[in-house]
Amino acid sequence: MRIHLTSVFVDDQETALRFYTDVLGFVKKHDVPLGVDRWLTVVSPEDPEGTELLLEPSGHPAVGPYRAALVQDGIPAASFAVDDVRAEFERLRALGVRFTQEPLETGTVTTAVLDDTCGNLVQIAHSDQQRRAEVRDTP
């Protein structure tokens, strides 16, 4: 069993698509009209057949209070692995991305948290275990 699809609720799908592709660097996988909304997914360009992220419309009445509580408590709605949190932080900050947590080392993991402009906090992370695996797998 593996994760095929996960989602984040977004206020505006077109705005979210631009942010997740133009800023974060994902690529659009599916864009299927469903009335006023779309089945809109993005994937990592490094793994185009991998896990899809659904940019899900936030119209359900439970979504607003749920997301507001997560943001108020500083809890990310999603977490993405990066090769170097500090380098990605600098790249994204130069593009105008607002961070609610600058890079922070907590044991073997470095994280930072950003505002996705669509109602969510998103964490970027890298662990020393990832780093050791990458070194081990390099010829």
Notes on the protein architecture:
- This protein has 139 residues and is an alpha/beta fold.
- It contains four helices and eight strands, in the order E-H-E-E-E-H-E-H-E-E-E-H.
- The strands form two sheets. A four-stranded mixed β-sheet has the order 1-4-3-2, covered by helices on one side. A four-stranded mixed β-sheet has the order 5-8-7-6.
- The longest helix is centred in the N-terminal third of the chain and has 11 residues.
- The two termini are 29 Å apart.
- The mean pLDDT is 93.
How does the SSE layout of this entry go?
Elements: E1 5-10, H1 13-23, E2 27-34, E3 37-43, E4 52-57, H2 63-72, E5 78-81, H3 85-94, E6 99-106, E7 109-115, E8 121-127, H4 128-137
Parallel strand pairs: 1-4, 5-8
Antiparallel strand pairs: 2-3, 3-4, 6-7, 7-8
